[in-house]
Design goal:
Shape: elongated
CATH topology of the largest domain: Rossmann fold
Number of helices: 8
GO biological process, one term: NADP+ biosynthetic process
Strand content: 25-35%
CATH superfamily of the largest domain: Probable inorganic polyphosphate/atp-NAD kinase, domain 1
Structural class: alpha+beta
Number of strands: 18
Radius of gyration: 21 Å
Largest sheet: 12 strands, mixed
Pfam families: NAD_kinase (PF01513), NAD_kinase_C (PF20143)
GO molecular function: ATP binding; metal ion binding; NAD binding; NAD+ kinase activity
Number of domains: 2
Family: Belongs to the NAD kinase family.
Subcellular location: Cytoplasm
Length: 309
């Protein structure tokens, strides 16, 4: 790329100014163009161009997500109809998607400019109850309203009914999303290299009580029964419909819907495996050390060196 165009996607509430300042300084040195959504104009310096949200992807070669996994998911959804590589800069806690820590950012941007990176494809789910514009890279959930009873819904796969659920929530997830709401509801951990759709009931009272793993080519339909409590529908944790008392939610898997920048795929995989083990498995001290940013780890290594004689 002779002149790279970066679109900035900011965490909605965190202070992102130190990271944005680093990007702006780098952009000035490399004549790079920077853009941000118009609603975030007040959070960035003057050289960053504010554009309508609908235009940000078209005006960007790469999106830079500044935040945690939630911000990264938002950037992927933003580009779902015209995928762009998304670089995640980590301001969160335990993130599974983001790769770059703020001290590594300038070097990461150099890699982008030199096209020295790989792209990791991500699938998504499309929920047709609200149109194709509603997508989820983690999960789509049907959630009961507190104090209004339980969700009662039938499961159909490719038009064939298989049973019913009576539970607090139904979570349909991608492999990437299997570590999120689905896991909390008792679902399996699914390798992100797998193509699959997972349907997991939360706090099941009757009917199907275990997670179901389906082929990505199978269409999932969850239809509310007349006795069901009102439900809310969430996409990646965002409310898209509330107080639904009838109808059905049809969900399909879409392959290669998002692109995530990977600068060091092997290191990312190792760190993700360690973060995964935080969910269930005890870690050795040396494994915990691998979760630390490079600068902190180097300082600990320096302190552990034997004294020079």
């Amino acid at each position: 790329m002779d002149r790279i165009r970066l679109g900035l996607v900011l965490h909605p509430t965190r202070d992102v100014s130190p990271v944005v300042d680093t990007i702006a300084a780098w952009a000035a040195r490399h004549s790079a163009a920077l853009a941000v959504r118009a609603q975030d104009r007040h959070r960035v310096p003057e050289p960053v161009q504010a554009v309508p949200e609908a235009d940000l992807v078209a005006r960007s070669d790469v999106l830079v997500s500044i935040g945690g996994d939630g911000t990264m998911l938002g950037a992927l959804r933003l580009a779902v109809h015209d995928p762009r590589p998304v670089l995640g800069v980590h301001l969160g806690k335990v993130g599974f998607l983001v790769e770059v820590e703020p001290p590594e950012l300038s070097a990461a941007l150099d890699r982008l400019l030199a096209r020295n990176f790989t792209v990791e494809a991500h699938s998504c789910l499309v929920c047709d109850v609200c149109g194709d514009d509603v997508v989820a890279f983690n999960d789509i959930a049907l959630v009961r309203q507190p104090g209004r009873g339980f969700i009662t819904a039938t499961l159909a796969v490719d038009g064939q009914r298989y049973g019913y659920y009576r539970c607090d929530a139904l979570v349909v997830s991608t492999p990437t999303g299997s570590t999120a709401y689905s896991y909390a509801a008792g679902g399996p951990l699914v390798s992100p290299a797998t193509r699959a759709v997972v349907v997991t009931p939360s706090a099941p009272m009757a009917g199907i009580s275990r997670a179901v793993v389906l082929s990505p080519d199978e269409a999932v339909r969850l239809e509310l029964r007349p006795e069901s409590a009102p439900i809310a529908v969430e996409s990646d944790g965002l409310l898209i419909r509330e107080a639904a008392t009838s109808g059905a939610v049809s969900i399909r898997y879409r392959e290669d819907a998002g692109q995530v920048v990977r600068l060091d795929p092997r290191r990312y995989q190792e760190r993700s495996q360690l973060k995964l083990s935080l969910l269930d498995l005890p870690l050795l001290p040396e494994q915990l050390r691998e979760l630390l940013p490079d600068g902190v780890r180097r300082e600990l290594d320096r302190r552990d060196l034997p004294p020079q004689r």
